[in-house]
């Protein structure tokens, strides 16, 4: 039994619907899936329904964009309470920030005589967590660039003329936000950050796990983080980071996390949330007053 705990849909920058992700997950034989769209939990309700119909266990998640000591980090939250007001307020704030960033990138493109309209980007993104990939797709769709790569190379990559820095919450705040919403906080794809020296700070802030298995982690890198997780007594997660067709071929099915790790996640979550104590048993023959 296997799981994929890192998936995106069109509720952020993936191209698949939750239903398509689940259909593909089923074909790949997964026992459990988690949805981790960027800075939103909006797709989770639909994904839960689709998973239930397919007989797949579903784990609510989100991938929060954060930073620590000037390094961008992504914090995965699992088992989040999607009705938690603070979480929803923070995510809504993120979405406003994302939308104003799109407007600013489009304004810079317009200054460069690239006649893109922000509404074209929003229409194409059709989600509340728009990002650079949507701007790139809109540029290609409007035939202002010939490919997504060209859009990034000419305009959108860091320090290119239409790039706008992204506001991020601190990684320590992200961990706290996940915890107060009842979730477990996991550092996504640490192998892409090349910032192992930051991990102790995250652990001190209560980080619960490391995403050891990821599409872009080689076997050697996966082993490195697996050993680190053991040493630091952290949970182990893994996932494909599938974005549908927006980043080449769909990746779902390429990373298979052993289900034993899902069991450990669930155990950790349950330990954090003990069932509400039932009233003390009555002595034999006793009666409750009243
Ligand atoms: Zn990420
Ligand atoms: Zn991701």
Helix content: 40-55%
Beta fraction of the residues?
Answer: 15-25%
Major sheet attributes: 9 strands, mixed
Mean pLDDT reading:
93
The run of helices and strands is EHEHEEHHHHEHEHEHEEH
Helical run tally: 10
Given helix and strand content, the structural type is: alpha/beta
Radius of gyration: 21 Å
Which molecules are bound in this entry?
zinc ion
Distance between the termini: 51 Å
Low-confidence regions:
none
| E-strand count | 9
What spatial form do the alpha-carbon principal axes imply?
globular
Give the structure's gist in a few sentences:
The protein is an alpha/beta fold and 290 residues long. It contains ten helices and nine strands.
Outline the structure in words.
The chain is α/β, with parallel strands linked by helices and 290 residues long. It contains 10 helices and 9 strands. α8 (199-204) links the parallel β6 (184-187) and β7. α1 packs parallel to α2 (44-54). The longest helix has 27 residues, at 85-111. The mean pLDDT is 93. Bound molecules: zinc ion (ZN) (2 copies). One zinc ion binds next to loops. One zinc ion is lined by residues 63, 74, 188-189.
Features:
globular, 9 strands, binds zinc ion, nine-stranded mixed beta sheet, alpha/beta
List the helices and strands and how they pair.
Blueprint: E1 2-4, H1 18-27, E2 32-35, H2 44-54, E3 57-68, E4 71-78, H3 85-111, H4 118-125, H5 132-141, H6 148-156, E5 169-170, H7 171-180, E6 184-187, H8 199-204, E7 209-214, H9 219-232, E8 235-239, E9 257-258, H10 259-272
Parallel strand pairs: 1-2, 2-3, 3-5, 6-7, 7-8
Antiparallel strand pairs: 1-9, 3-4, 4-6
Helix pairs in contact: 1-2, 4-5, 5-6
The protein binds zinc ion (2 copies).
